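Progress report, Aim 2. The chain analyzed during this reporting quarter is listed below.
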Amino acid sequence: MTASSLFESHVKIGAVSYLNSRPLLETLPFPIYKDVPSRLFHLYNSGKLDAALLSIYDILRLPKAEVVDNIGIGCRGDVYSVILVYEGSLKNIKKIQLDPASHTSNQLLKIILAEFYHLYPDYIEGNNDQCKVEARLIIGDPAIAFREKRSCSILDLGGEWFHFTKLPFIFAMWCLNRDNTQKEYLKKILIQAKEEGLLLRHRIVANEPNPTIALRYLTEHIRYDVGPEELQGLELFKSLLKKYSL
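Predicted structure tokens for the chain:
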């Protein structure tokens, strides 16, 4: 066994279980633990992962987060998979069910409604199907499926953010375990996987229920680069989190 294969056999990676992460994971040479964003953070924070594709809100909570430059899951306009679904008028909504799988999207929704619409509804945490609400936040693959089947009103959080700020938004980035002695080598593998995976998006969507919609989602809605504008959007998000004590 070579030194690189020995290293790869011991690497522990965590990532979100959504379609939008697939181009970053498709060619990685080691097993990947997949879960929703909120649970990934707890696993990473316990030191059990060498790298994790973490929610940007969770990364901002870490005292000394070490991210991989120029890799992220974001959007510049409609993200398609982070949506508020509601009936009636947005301004009349009194209660909103948040998505327990999310950290970033829950906070982004609060910021959008407060900063841009001056709305302050009650937010219901966790899964509470018995609670009557006028609106619900849905993220990831369930949001894509919902869009294709339902006819109620939809607020796309990526689209709203870009409409009001003219900046892209980053939902997740690779975050490295600072104690990993080979993190520079791991970083190179993650960068290479991104470059290779973006060329395989046609193959990735082949077995999706609707390959046409899935390909459009991965090529037109989701962006995987993190440049100066993305970082500017991230700084604005950070400042608004502080403004609203989130």
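DSSP finds eleven helices and ten strands in the chain. The mean pLDDT is 91. These observations will guide the mutagenesis work planned for the next reporting period.
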